[in-house]
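Structure in, sequence out. Go:
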């Protein structure tokens, strides 16, 4: 039976990819949700072709960051990019076998989960060692090598980013923006001092960006790169690894940040919820991180209260 055209790599993409990887003998659709992803097979091996349509991701930055990592770091490098007139990008990269962490974590033994978390920490630390200039969202300079952000400092970036989320997700803002803003203002001196020099951040460590094959973890996506305080990544990981043995690994890795670690967790829970409001039909009070069961609003409240050093507040979800 012939596959529908939409289930195979488009001809125009095939013509671009084959000079790089050789003639494609077979291709099939892996995902058609947010960005279409195909698996393509050639004599050189198996590859993935992603049609990246999310403008918040910059594949050129991702390629530059991944290409700067030492060869010992388990991360899928990008082989080639094709930019389309509409601003979308086709990304060609080796296929990495295994299961994403959101599939693998449930039911995994605690020792294995802790080991996976420690491997993610090492990947995050390797990204933080890549040189970057400035603070905030990272872009690639025309020289194709220099990574740069434009905000004057880390705190200014966080304030501006939260304000943009407030406008994008007004229902969430009515529920929790004031709480997060109050925590941010309370911690302003610590946040201002947290990033005395810019460090590169893997700013989207959700579980679907990592694949496990037995005991080995590999990073397969780095869709968002920020420059600022490395502890922000460990705080975000507290949200994604909540309720697992890996949570303690990230709390230990970010322990020097103190209450900032919980602030970063609350901040990222808010960012994910803003995404849910914009792109999902799921009610805000039921949305949970991929692979998790604890509602994001509950995680937000827990970490926001800890960030402010007080008891958990009973907040309404209405």
């Amino acid at each position: 039976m012939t596959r529908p055209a939409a289930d195979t790599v488009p001809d125009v993409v095939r013509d671009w990819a084959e000079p790089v990887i050789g003639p494609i003998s077979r291709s099939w659709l892996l995902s058609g949700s947010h960005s279409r992803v195909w698996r393509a097979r050639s004599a050189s091996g198996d590859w993935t072709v992603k049609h990246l349509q999310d403008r918040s991701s910059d594949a050129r930055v991702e390629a530059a960051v991944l290409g700067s990592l030492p060869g010992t770091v388990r991360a899928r490098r990008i082989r080639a990019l094709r930019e389309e007139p509409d601003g979308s990008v086709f990304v060609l990269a080796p296929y990495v076998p295994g299961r994403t962490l959101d599939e693998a974590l449930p039911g995994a033994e605690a020792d294995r989960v802790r080991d996976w978390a420690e491997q993610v920490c090492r990947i995050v630390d390797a990204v933080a060692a890549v040189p970057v200039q400035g603070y905030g969202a990272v872009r690639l300079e025309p020289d194709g090598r220099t990574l740069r952000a434009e905000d004057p400092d880390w705190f200014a970036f966080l304030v501006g980013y939260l304000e943009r989320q407030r406008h994008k997700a007004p229902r969430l803002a009515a529920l929790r923006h004031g709480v997060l803003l109050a925590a941010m203002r309370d911690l302003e001196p610590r946040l201002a001092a947290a990033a005395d020099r810019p460090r590169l951040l893997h700013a989207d460590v959700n579980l679907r960006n990592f694949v496990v094959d037995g005991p080995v973890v590999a990073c397969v996506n780095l869709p968002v790169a920020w420059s600022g305080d490395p502890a922000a990544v460990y705080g975000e990981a507290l949200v994604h690894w909540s309720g697992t043995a890996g949570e303690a690994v990230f709390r230990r890795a970010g322990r020097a940040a103190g209450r900032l670690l919980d602030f970063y967790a609350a901040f990222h829970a808010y960012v994910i919820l803003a995404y849910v409001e914009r792109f999902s039909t799921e009610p805000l009070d039921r949305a949970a991180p991929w692979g998790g069961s604890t509602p994001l609003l509950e995680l937000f409240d827990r970490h926001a209260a800890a960030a402010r050093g007080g008891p958990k507040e009973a907040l309404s979800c209405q």
